[in-house]
Fold each of these.
Amino acid sequence: MDTFGLLGQGLIAAMQWQNLIYAFIGVTLGTAVGVLPGIGPALTVALLLPVTYRLDPAGSLIMFAGIYYGGMYGGSTTSILLNTPGESASIVTALEGNKMARKGRGGPALATSAIGSFVAGLIATLGLAFIAPFVVKFALMFGPADYFALMILAFITVSAAFGDSALRGLTALFIGLGLGVIGIDLQTGQARLAFGIPDLLDGIEVTTLAVAMFAIGETLMIASTSGSIKDEVIAVKGSIWMTAEDWKRSWGAWLRGTAIGFPIGAMPAGGAEIGTFFSYATEKQLTKHPEEFGEGAIEGVAGPEAANNASAAGTLVPLLTLGLPTTATAAIMLAGFQQFGLQPGPLLFANNASLVWALIASLLVANFMLVVLNLPLIGLWVRLLTIPKPWLYGGILVFATLGTLGANGAMSGHIGPISFSFELMMLLAFGILGYLLRRFGYPIAPVVVGLILGPMAEQQLRRALAISQGDFTALFHSPIAIVLYMLATAAILIPLYFRLRGKGEVFSQLASDED
Amino acid sequence: MSIGEPKLARRPDGAALFIAVILAVIAGIIIWQMSLMRVPPVQQRVGPTVFPYAIAGALILLSIGTAVSALRGSFPAREKGSMAPMAWIVAGLLAQILLLSTAGFAVATGLLFAFTAKGFGRGPLWQTIPIGIVFALIVWFIFARGLQLSLPAGPLERLLP
């Protein structure tokens, strides 16, 4: 069947009333949680994963899609009204959007970001639908050695290529890879690094690690430094509607942002924020009002917001077709698939075609819901921003521990007569680790990606070596693998060259921190 | 995220050196644990120890790199963190972990909520703890009853219908 037919079938499935309700709950929760300052899309998805435990796979994934897109929308509201540089994909939005809000043009800024996100989401989701089958066809030719090379490329781009230090990025990655080794080895059934603790035999849950790093680590970081940062919510004054002039200046930026964001997300290059920076630079070059940049130029909101959402949809291309997560958010989504025993990759399209296409179609549905939901409800979202910090972070920790307990609430640890949840203990330990990583300037995303991708890479490596009977040169026999290794080398060397030439600040701004 | 005062003198960074040591220790633990594993001869070349050894090797290299970077003082400037708020939050998490199985979700989590609020400067505890417990009880009701999540119940939860 062709893409149109499959997508049409998916749409019919997504339009069933219970799926519509799941999508609606997903976008509402996703937006509400995403709006909260300090919570980016990765944490939104990780926190809300337990909500979906009791649903059937299709409903759960549809709700998930809504949460993902909702979290992206919510994040931009925060950065426009509250100049929080917390979430990296919205940093650029905050540059111009916050200035607009300060000038009393918060309404149009929110409108252009919502409509831009819609336009980008629509085009990029259609892009995903049309590109995915080709990637799947290509991916079916991949052998284990090629997959291993692909994962090496993903490791490099996630950890070393961007961010201000390849050393710290790689360290974060290898911490994640090391954590990924813990547990029973799938091929031989032997326990590794479990130290005789039964709870460690199943390995470390990606969601526990992500929630710990993003929720607890972030809370500790904010708490220890909160004296120095002042947040000020800017009220939305005047009309939220865009003027004819605003429309004229926005639509080109939306389309350019989409064109920049989608390919960057779709390549295993990680990070929605990279696209937003390129888009911002492009708009700054092309604008007829250069004097407004830095003072609240609407193009500077429209373009990066579109790029942000387009690359969010783009990251679903490698995730769904190759099973390759390139951002922390995608890594958690992968964990969401795995909780239902689904492994994204070319075979998912063959074996669970109806599910995949219902998911893609529901992304379209979620996108429509968001644009309808966002503008009228803006007052409600603004009120969420004014929650005082003590209550906000108290609540975040309540839900962080709730989700962890919901996933694995076994009281399996014992201190004397008291039994406690081992999973919560790990949450605390990783939370402190997350705080330390942040404090010393290590990125978080590579740890999460390393944990989930490490075991997969190991499996492919051992499969490849088993086929070649232990001959390591077999890893470099296939032309696909050679090209991928060349790309990985370039991804290390090109940024290194720029850093040495003193252009490092560009890359440090691209630090992929949040998603 | 770092808005601290920049480091003026470029001297060896003690904390960063410590990180280098930790990385080397982790690598050592991995190598030690892997050396204890008995690998069947069939698996000798591509067995379960190959990948962990590679990770340990990389960690050693990264440890050396971190040490060099620490000696050159090239770590990013850090804000001075205050320990007291963090101590409250960690204490809250520990209290919750230890109380959950006996006192139930609402009481344990209410303490976590109140301690976290205290860490952010909101008190007094005799006010925030009841607020936290009521909040956690509502959350428990929604998730345990509504969404069928298995959350530990204590005396307070059993009072609910």
Amino acid sequence: MSSVAAIRTEGLGKTYLSGFLRRPFVGLSDLTLSVPEGITFGFVGPNGAGKTTTIKMLMGLQAPTAGNAWLFGTPIADPASRAAVGFMPERPYFYEHLTAWEFLEFYARLSGVPSHERQGRITALLERVELARFRNVALRKFSKGMLQRAGIAQALVGDPRLVVLDEPMSGLDPLGRVLVRDLILDERKSGRTVFFSSHILSDVEQLSDRVAIVVGGRLREEGTIDALVGSAVLSVDLTFTGSAELAGAELLRADELGRTVRLPPAEVDAACRAILAAGGSIVAVHRNVRSLEQVLLTEVERARVVNEKQLGVLA
Amino acid sequence: MSRIWVIATNTFREAVRDRILNSILFFAVLLLGLSLALRELSIGDTDKVVRGVALGGVSMLAAIVALFLGVSLVYKEIERRTIYTLAAKPIARWQLLLGKYLGIWLTLAAEVALLFAFYVIIVSPQQGLPGVPVLVSALMLMVELSLLSAWAMLFSTFASPVTATAYSLCIYVIGHFADDLHLFGERAEPGPFKTTALALYRVLPNLESFNLRTEAVHGVAVPVSELCWSAAYGFGYTAAVLAVAMLVFTKRDFK
């Protein structure tokens, strides 16, 4: 593993000029980030937060209007910075006239894969994304899920050190999501750096070593999942039978298993004693911790309040 | 260079699998066949009429294909977002555009070769094998198509296909009336019209420089020096247009 970050940005920003009057619109502002090699990095935020803008700048599709960025220490303005990078864009569209095999061969040749390695690598990848039996089928006949899998195979065909995936789970059915999730987990195990954006936060929590949250074109939080969500228990859900009445508990539901209530953690011991004393039994205990979703929602709310204050000052 | 070639061969494959392009080629072959019927309908030197219509038809349809490929292939990459994965490879934008252009050029060369092969097959039984002037006119047609497709590609780097087609057609039409434009400029009274006409004449290509169909129909040989000069003019102009296209494409953001 090298000490050079796979991705590094310093004050990266993008301002678009839109409309006839060329009004400025800030897509991303002052993003400073470092993604070490060998980790899986989740990039999350609501729609329009600046995730895709960041990825497009890193991939050389858009030029930054502020700041700098490097891939493995090489400035992104240099096409050589992407020599060890595989990329799958959001909602990928590929050459419909090509078969799955021709498609991967095209990208393998573009990635500089030697001819004697091409056949073996493409065969293995097609099997890995479960498209081996469709190798001679034109991409125009592929479903969305199949295209997404072909897109991931395309990103991996050059055996890159860094894989960048923009919304890889977007629009997939549950089976497709599991397959893509497993592929990312495999890449994580193999020590490849994976940088992916998503707004399916349960996947991000499960897959990422580190997470960055962007809202309104600005980086709000960055760190490990534990550091962001914390390990403190917020509340406990208790399912029990019997007639015990628990003061201060919030009733969530009552069904054939019993009643389920939500309690502050400090009151769980007393509640359990009361349930047993009343002749009932405890069926299930579930602890509620802070989720990434709550962190994101907090940041969205904070950004909204700041925005309103700024507008108030301007008014 | 190898990455440019990979893009060129993929572009060629994309073009030859395109149904619209194949339909145009089908009509070109049909037109060649129909030109034979003119022999029965014309008076005078009927062989020349057949040759004139056949070569004229081939040139016009080849120009349509050049415009179609030049306008659509780069635009399609952007519109269908295949450019995202392509431009994210370790390849400079100018190399990408050059690869696309080479692919278009290969397609046009194959198309011209195919159409002239059909010309030989269809016309030879009546008139015997065509002479060198016909071959020379085919080569000069290729120079014209190189230039025309470069213009179309330049327009497609910043405009929609409809607009790019309109601009390219303007270049095609004005390019074939360049000598008239020059004459108009020369004879006009001094003023804005004269200045504009002469400026346009100097900036826009003179596509008639590559039109050797009359010589081919009449079997007249063109001096080699004149051919070399026209080819150098055509390829030099093409390189300049491509350089501008590369500059525009390099600056472009893909949203």
